[in-house]
Amino acid sequence: MRRDPLIALRPWETPEVTSWGRLPMNAVDRRGDALSLDGSWHFQLLPTPHGCSGEWTRIEVPGAWTMQDLGDLPQYTNFRMPWGEFPPASPAANPTGVYERSVDIPAEWAGRRIVLQVGAAESVLLVHVNGRPVGISKDSRLAAEFDLSDVVRPGDPATLRLTVIKWSDASHIEDQDQWWHAGITRSVLLYATDPLHLADVTVRARQDGELRVDCQVRDAAGALPEGWYVTGALGGQLLVQDAEFDRVNAEDMRVSDFLGEVRLSATVRAVRPWTAETPELYELTVRLHRADGSVADTSHHRVGFRNVEVCGPNLLVNGERIFIRGINRHDFHPLTGRTVSAADMRADLVLLKRFGFNAIRTAHYPNDPTLLDLADELGFYVVDEANIESHDHAHEIADDPRYLGAFVDRVSRMVLRDKNHPSVIIWSLGNESDYGANHDAAAGWIRRHDPTRPLQYEGAAKLDWAGPSVASDIACPMYAPIEDCVAHALSGEQTKPLIQCEYSHAMGNSNGTLADHWAAIESIPGLQGGFIWEFWDHGILQRVNDGRPAGRAGAGLYGKGVAAPGHRWAYGGDFGDSPNDGGFCADGLVFPDRTPKPAMYEHREIAAPVRLRYCRGVFLVQNRQHFRSLEWLNAEWCLVHEDGRTQTAPSVLPGVLPGSTEAIAMPFPLPEGEAWLTLRVTTARDEAWAPRGTEVCLPQVRLSTGVAAAPSHESVPGASVEVDGEGRLVHPLLASPPVLSLWRAPTDNDEIGGMAARWRDWGLDALVRKVVGVDREGAHVTVRAEYATGAGIVRHEQVITPVAGGLRIEESAELPEALDDVARVGTVFETVGGLDVLDWYGQGPWESYPDRSAGAPVGHHSLPVDELFTPYLRPQESGGRHGVRRFTLSAPDATGLAVGLGAPSQVSVSRYRAEDLAAATHHDELVPRPGCVVHLDAAHRGLGTASCGPDTSAQYLIAPGIHRWAWTLRVL
Ligand code: GAL
Ligand code: MG
């Protein structure tokens, strides 16, 4: 067999080779007129790039082979490379996929320039057509184009062979925290143009209506023909050719025989500027004409008129200091790995809009171009990030001249592709790659090519948030504590906007203190927001019986965050992958099926466009937006009384300018005692991301007049309390008596942050109760127990008194000084089976915790017990409700029990004991108990975000010393 020159060169071990035969990147969108080559291709997987051809099978394009049961499975590592070779080497065992298919080249393409576009291939792409080597490309997240005009014949079939090598020198700079996959992950297409064509179009559109369109023109023959010209139209308005540009070019003798350059311009009067709140787009058509006026090429663009600038410590869009309510988003899908359809991308962005997000960081690579189209259309500010992360060998690579070309190539090609999107407001040089000369080189390229946008790179700014930097105009740290951000903003030394590129790590039950972050951001100039880490939990749908990814056959085999029976959400290690980083890839605000986690509701309220305040008898509505009035919103008042009554009435939102506050009339008389007033805000008309009537936010204020009558707890003469020989309450509806609980099934934050290990060291996960006294005094029973922990003895006392209709239980627990950080202090008991519905008065309806309770309004809520649970991928503490005043647990015949709480408390009702959850690694291992496990917590530790970043703040920790709480238990 003849040696293949593309293989013989070993390009997968040569970082200097970023491409061969590849066309320059540009912003002319050819998808519209193209021939799609998506679908089924012939495929074989070789053990190495040198492997001999074997059996052909079939593969779906686009689609990673790691998700299609073809013998090579996904592997998850955070930053460590999956193998030990140092850059630029890769392992000898190197799966190599060969994709092949025949294409009928349309006869009408005769005389045209024929181009193949491969949307994304991971990690090295070799292209052969009709047996001839055509090209090489690297960068798994950008398209590669090859001119096939000389190797195919219109009217004849052509054989395309795309060879994809999994591991390479490029893997070392694609070491992002995500699953390792391989294959062709975005669409493949073929298109034809006239030999005379638009090689690139650059659109600059400013907030004041000034439009500038720079066109580059080439001819496949080399020399440009005489008499070509370009026209442009924005809607009905014709653009004019910029004579000054032509004159300067002519004087500078820049006019070229083979590169035509034209500048068109226009001034749009009364322009409607683009912002994320008002994503106004205009249609631009650019036409390239031959001398006879016929059209040789056309390019369509959607134009958004906007400015972005950094002004001292402020990032301004159209002159306004905006807030960045951002999220980091990977390309992810539980069935296809990295291949994400346009419908999926739209669904992602629609969901983000509905939960108040206005910004996306394309962590950590340029996304499918459709994502930016959608961001332009739906309204998002985008930090567009280059596909560079050399995490494991960051320091060695940042200054390695062999990788210099790759850095500049990746950054420049991203900019060339995405420069016309109004949504892109900031370029990012990549992620977690240390900082070196290779970054400055790439930054230099951008500075020259696109002076209209700021640039950021966390690695360049992290050691000195204020220092001048070629590579970052933004101080964009990750996981900085709130105090540090506040101190910087107040230091007087801030020189750049402070916008965290990652914060509030959403792993498992997390995002504690999000509201505290925002309280600081909104009150301190210089702080402008950040990007939550991250959107998705990267759980892959896996069949439990054979451990394979379900792939596309798994469509519909999940819902409400949970995999169907026989399936589970796989994380690192579940495919036998080694090394792996376990569940660290499950750190998103949505489950793998895009079901929002409760933290999304917290964000929605924090990001609410409308705020409600009550101040000395006056209700105030504030418009929290930057550019929009409140006209697009409807509202309804909802008054929740303590006694269970709820009144509603429609409301008209006042015309409030962005950033301003106006008084609003409340239709109800002020109630006596405690009540809660909510403004239920919905969309007043259809929005691109929400039909009319979609709930937008639920701002709420507490009203309190007079003093609420304290409930009376007269003991009932003659009644008695039954306890067993160990002093444990005996009650017909309790399967297990109320005892002290100091532990929760560790959250991911608890585990990774080290708290869970301390709790285990102290023995809190397996407390042994020792009764030290049971005293009866009249109707009261006083039970004293002790629990020995590794940090001293905890003394617990229960005084149980019969009261009208039931029992009152007053408890106290004394925690020794050394027991200074427990998960909870409270009571746990279990009910008999059959009590399947929880009705409660407190915060809800979704899960909330002490440091994540800003988005759960107080009300009378009701849910089946099974729906209280939140199925975090690795089972852990979940389903808690904050600020609960009372609840009932009932059977369909309305029998059951009622619990009243002396003070608003953290309550959880679940089918699982904490130890059940802690013992399970995935949901398919959990077996629900027939009864309910009920926790009433006098104190519950905040969630924080310690799995990556700061723990909760001190105010949400549980102090040692004496804790007291009281509750009543009645039978319904
Ligand atoms: C950051 C990193 C992300 C992810 C995150 C933790 O350091 O940029 O890619 O690893 O931490 O989930
Ligand atoms: Mg990393």
TrEMBL record:
<protein>
    <recommendedName>
        <fullName>Beta-galactosidase</fullName>
        <ecNumber>3.2.1.23</ecNumber>
    </recommendedName>
</protein>
<dbReference type="InterPro" id="IPR050347">
    <property type="entry name" value="Bact_Beta-galactosidase"/>
</dbReference>
<feature type="domain" description="Beta galactosidase small chain/">
    <location>
        <begin position="715"/>
        <end position="970"/>
    </location>
</feature>
<dbReference type="GO" id="GO:0004565">
    <property type="term" value="F:beta-galactosidase activity"/>
</dbReference>
<dbReference type="InterPro" id="IPR013783">
    <property type="entry name" value="Ig-like_fold"/>
</dbReference>
<dbReference type="GO" id="GO:0030246">
    <property type="term" value="F:carbohydrate binding"/>
</dbReference>
<comment type="similarity">
    <text>Belongs to the glycosyl hydrolase 2 family.</text>
</comment>
<dbReference type="InterPro" id="IPR006104">
    <property type="entry name" value="Glyco_hydro_2_N"/>
</dbReference>
<dbReference type="Pfam" id="PF16353">
    <property type="entry name" value="LacZ_4"/>
</dbReference>
<dbReference type="InterPro" id="IPR006102">
    <property type="entry name" value="Ig-like_GH2"/>
</dbReference>
<dbReference type="InterPro" id="IPR036156">
    <property type="entry name" value="Beta-gal/glucu_dom_sf"/>
</dbReference>
<dbReference type="InterPro" id="IPR032312">
    <property type="entry name" value="LacZ_4"/>
</dbReference>
<dbReference type="Pfam" id="PF00703">
    <property type="entry name" value="Glyco_hydro_2"/>
</dbReference>
<dbReference type="Pfam" id="PF02836">
    <property type="entry name" value="Glyco_hydro_2_C"/>
</dbReference>
<dbReference type="InterPro" id="IPR023232">
    <property type="entry name" value="Glyco_hydro_2_AS"/>
</dbReference>
<dbReference type="InterPro" id="IPR023230">
    <property type="entry name" value="Glyco_hydro_2_CS"/>
</dbReference>
<dbReference type="Pfam" id="PF02929">
    <property type="entry name" value="Bgal_small_N"/>
</dbReference>
<dbReference type="InterPro" id="IPR004199">
    <property type="entry name" value="B-gal_small/dom_5"/>
</dbReference>
<dbReference type="InterPro" id="IPR006103">
    <property type="entry name" value="Glyco_hydro_2_cat"/>
</dbReference>
<dbReference type="GO" id="GO:0005990">
    <property type="term" value="P:lactose catabolic process"/>
</dbReference>
<keyword id="KW-0378">Hydrolase</keyword>
<keyword id="KW-0326">Glycosidase</keyword>
<dbReference type="Pfam" id="PF02837">
    <property type="entry name" value="Glyco_hydro_2_N"/>
</dbReference>
<dbReference type="InterPro" id="IPR014718">
    <property type="entry name" value="GH-type_carb-bd"/>
</dbReference>
<dbReference type="InterPro" id="IPR017853">
    <property type="entry name" value="GH"/>
</dbReference>
<dbReference type="InterPro" id="IPR006101">
    <property type="entry name" value="Glyco_hydro_2"/>
</dbReference>
<dbReference type="InterPro" id="IPR011013">
    <property type="entry name" value="Gal_mutarotase_sf_dom"/>
</dbReference>
<dbReference type="InterPro" id="IPR008979">
    <property type="entry name" value="Galactose-bd-like_sf"/>
</dbReference>
<dbReference type="GO" id="GO:0009341">
    <property type="term" value="C:beta-galactosidase complex"/>
</dbReference>
